[in-house]
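Lab notebook, bench 4. Still working through the backlog of constructs that have no structural model yet. Next entry is a single chain of 220 residues. Request: give me the structure tokens for it.
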Amino acid sequence: MALQPDFGMFVLYSSLTAFLLYAGGVALRPLMATAGALVPIGGLLLLAAPYRLGRLLAFINPAAYRETYGYQVYQSLIAIGSGGVWGRGLGASRAKLFYLPAAHNDFAFAVVGEETGLIGSLVLVGLLAWLVALGFKVAVRAPDRLGALYALGASFILGFQALLNLGVVVGVLPVTGLTLPFVSYGGSSLAVTLALCGLILGVARAAEAVQPSRAVEVAR
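Model written out:
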């Protein structure tokens, strides 16, 4: 995955692997050692693709690259700022029509911020956080360790991907190319998101099926 143009997906699934290994009982020290060994490789991957290096430089010095590599983030911040507290109104975004590239996928949250303002943005972030919290709650109640890891992994992907996307849109992370679950346009992205939710629901259903039998055993 690291050799493909989608470097953000490589970061996402590498983080998922480390998270599941730690949740599965692997000691933290070897994980940290592995992560440290991968840092030089990440640097080489950045240097191997000029656009990746450009995105990093634009993140470090946005003003110097706002007409090139930092253009998307610059326009995204303008869109969010113009939304104010209550927003321009649904469908009234100007950035998505004239200024903001990828307004329908990677930077969809900027349009949400412009049209619904701070209030709508907080509601959306709250709903995503609530969904992830429910996923972790399902993991705690899973009937077995495998089910718990399934729910943890699915919840982590949804939450971490949303966090990376939101961080990019508001300018606190370099551009990664990751979509926002349930919001960004894309059939494959939506299909994967729904599959992850289905995985969490499957674990929840299995937990509910086990709980009555446990109650009967306790009663006996």
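Notes after review: Residues 108-140 form the longest helix (33 residues). The chain is about 70% helix and 0% strand. Flag for follow-up if needed.
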